[in-house]
Write a structure and sequence with these properties.
The chain has 5 helices and no strands. The chain has about 140 residues and is mainly α. Helix 2 packs across helix 5 and helix 3 packs antiparallel against helix 5. It binds heme C.
Length: about 140
């Protein structure tokens, strides 16, 4: 009996360090807790990629897609919704900023405009402004 028990114990001592070794590998993936007062070892947030003019225009076009559901394709409304086609970049931008801030009362535009940053509003307004300048 005794020798058998010793074999079991021996096995346990042989196996346990394996588990421990395994768990230390996992623990190494988890960032170590940072002690108070020390500089955080967490990586700095990656800066937003710098987009070129063409990429920004494309972004404006994508953001502007959400408007067509109400204002019609290219902002040409065929319903009671106001058309935004034909309006200038400046007009659309200030309208959206006013809706966003609540300076201009609205039914839905305030809620919608709040979802965009001022930069995004600028891109959307530029998209519609440029569209209106084209002959179409
Ligand atoms: C859910 C429908 C809906 C969506 C989506 C929507 N709008 Fe509107 N929009 C309206 C309504 C309704 C009005 C009239 C003001 C109000 O009551 O909210 C309006 C008004 C406007 C006006 C003022 C028009 C004027 O003649 O002064 C502008 C500019 C405008 N929207 C731009 C946009 C842009 C740009 C988007 C996309 C980012 C957009 N809207 C998305 C419904 C919508």
């Amino acid at each position: 009996m005794l020798p058998k028990k010793n074999v079991m114990l021996g096995l346990m001592f042989a196996v346990v360090p394996l588990f421990q070794a395994g768990s230390t590998v996992i623990a190494a993936d988890v960032p170590a807790p940072v002690a108070a007062g020390t500089v955080s070892a967490a990586p700095a947030p990656t800066p937003a990629p710098v987009l070129d003019a063409a990429q920004l225009r494309q972004r404006g076009q994508i953001l502007a897609l959400s408007c067509s559901g109400c204002h019609g394709t290219d902002g040409k409304s065929e319903s009671i919704m106001p058309s935004i086609y034909g309006k200038t970049t400046g007009y659309i931008e200030s309208a959206l900023l006013d809706f966003k801030s609540g300076a201009r009362t609205s039914t839905v535009m305030g809620r919608h405009a709040k979802g965009y940053s001022a930069d995004e509003i600028h891109l959307i307004a530029e998209y519609f402004g440029n569209l209106s300048k084209k002959k179409n």
